[in-house]
Amino acid sequence: MNxxxxxxxxxxxxxEQEAAATIYTYNTGLRRTLISLCESHPxxxxxxxxxxxxxxxxxxxxxWVKVSPPRALxxxxxxxxxxxxxxxxxxxxx
Length: 94
Prior knowledge:
Layout: E1 10-13, E2 20-25, H1 28-40, E3 46-50, E4 56-61, H2 75-93
Antiparallel strand pairs: 1-2, 2-4, 3-4
């Protein structure tokens, strides 16, 4: 069964009473991260389901679920990063 990109959802569920959150996802990077957490923190994170067509479901502490905006860089920080990138490109070209 083929699942369209639109249907490949990530759903994060939790309620105010329980301490656990459930994450259902098709996202490869997130699945990889959650599988790694299952291995490194088996008491807190566990895979609960595999739908057989690409999605996995995990349970973890809801305190671990975070939403954070991207870091805002100052002009000085941007300049330092640009210089580092330029030096790395020059070094690779040698």
